[in-house]
Amino acid sequence: MDNTKNQHRKLRLIEHANGKSLEEINGTVEVPHGKGFFRTLFAYSGPGALVAVGYMDPGNWSTSITGGQSFQYTLMTTILISSLIAMLLQYMAAKLGIVSQMDLAQAIRARTGKALGVILWLMTELAIMATDIAEVIGAAIALNLLFHIPLVLAVFITVLDVLVLLLLTKIGFRKIEAIVACLILVILAVFAYQVALSHPDWAGVFKGLLPTKEAIAKEPVVGGISPLTGSLGIIGATVMPHNLYLHSAISQTRKIDHTNAEDIKQTVRFTAWDSNIQLTLAFFVNALLLIMGVAVFKNGAVQDSSFFGLYDALNNTDMLSNGLLIAVAKSGVLSTLFAIALLASGQNSTITGTLTGQVIMEGFVHMKMPLWARRLITRLLSVVPVLVCVAMTAHESTIDQHASLNILMENSQVFLAFALPFSMLPLLIMTNSDTEMGQFKNSLWVRVLGWISVIGLTFLNLYNLPQTYEGFGIWSKGLSDVLAWISIVVIVVLLAWTCFELIRGDRRLAAEREKHTWEK
Q1: Helix (H/G/I), strand (E/B), else coil: 464
Q2: Under 8 Å CB-to-CB from 133, ≥6 apart: which residues?
Q3: Per the omega criterion (within 30 degrees of 0), is the bond before 227 cis?
Q4: Can you tell me where the transmembrane regions are (predicted)?
Q5: Around Cβ 30, how many Cβ atoms within 10 Å?
Q6: How far apart (Å, rounded) are the C-alpha atoms in residues 102 and 44?
Q7: I need a labelling partner for 467 at 20 to 30 A (CA). Which of 6, 289, 315, 513 fits?
Q8: Pairing of strands 15-16, 367-368
């Protein structure tokens, strides 16, 4: 009878889940003790690569290259600052998972009511879908460019990446980490090669790293975006909310003794090293993308800044900036490498997006489903807006069709920036908590920088919301402003509700633990 029940349970698509985060891989990777620095770092290396993938997906390509085309090196500072913020947030996310043995979704749900938990779950699901839209567009365009597959058919083929995921789940988590790391190096090598050929203005590059007010200005508007909108797109594509959930889960894959403070301290330290090294590589990729937008092509030569337009420009010797690039472009190497890197980027993001979806579903609403089913549902939902965009522009010029896909991708990244405070704020509150973190709670400088990041990014997002609604081109300016202000009020109220429940929940948990200690 028991076996029959077990078999019946295995056949169910959705199951109740309230155990360890990503239970199948939790605590499965052995790590050394008392060994050398580099040997220990190698054992902890891997989760950082999975996280870094989210910082160099096709959405980043769009925002960074377009930022370079439109505003030269002005937005280099945005890439640098957002990368530093990402390092800070990912450190806190990993530390939360290691110390509390809960991922971010589980820790939030432990402190909030069911209603808020469901709202935050749906918001994070939409953020994952927004990321997936960029992956669908990037992968479909790469297939079209490399194999001349019609775009609509290529969009449907991207659904089949679920088969890649099924294969990867059979080979072990450590091998998945290695594959992802190799693909990252491929992407880095492709863009380093192309930028090296372009001989960029390095003085302008380094000057662009310095913060200026021009990076967050509302003027000029080039190609429908301002520097502020471009910066928010880069922030949304770089500091991604779902990555915080992912890192808090996969940081628990290492097998350690949670009763030993030194073991925990070692894990936090080497996980931070792994994360920062990989995110530094992601910074270089994004910086190279922006430099590519500026230096590879003649100034103002590229009218179509979509992936199609950039691919064609890499084949068009009239658009390239110097003789060396022109000589290489004649062989077709530049454009082919671009498309290969685009496809690699999309496949990398497939793995991390699916794992994150499982983390938030289990954590917020205690539901679990097979990874292949989870991926299939998310991808099919993400395909819809892409197909609608393709269908609506079918009778327009080629450049307009490409521009529409580009705008869809950029707007999806801006949405991520709005969802970000609802993961940043809980993460900061909980890692500041004595109740959750004990001796591992955030130091003073981490708390200060954390609050500056949360408040600063939230303010910029709300400040730019009216212009973002106008940029959609759907409503009049008056209606766009009204909708924007309604959205601002809803966001502020929801953030206040989240803060209230988290603080109250933290006090409740502290009282329960104190009572439990007293009873023992």
Answers
A1: coil
A2: 382, 385, 386, 408, 409, 412
A3: no
A4: 36-55, 75-94, 115-141, 147-169, 176-196, 228-246, 279-297, 324-344, 376-394, 414-432, 444-463, 483-503
A5: 10
A6: 19
A7: 289
A8: antiparallel
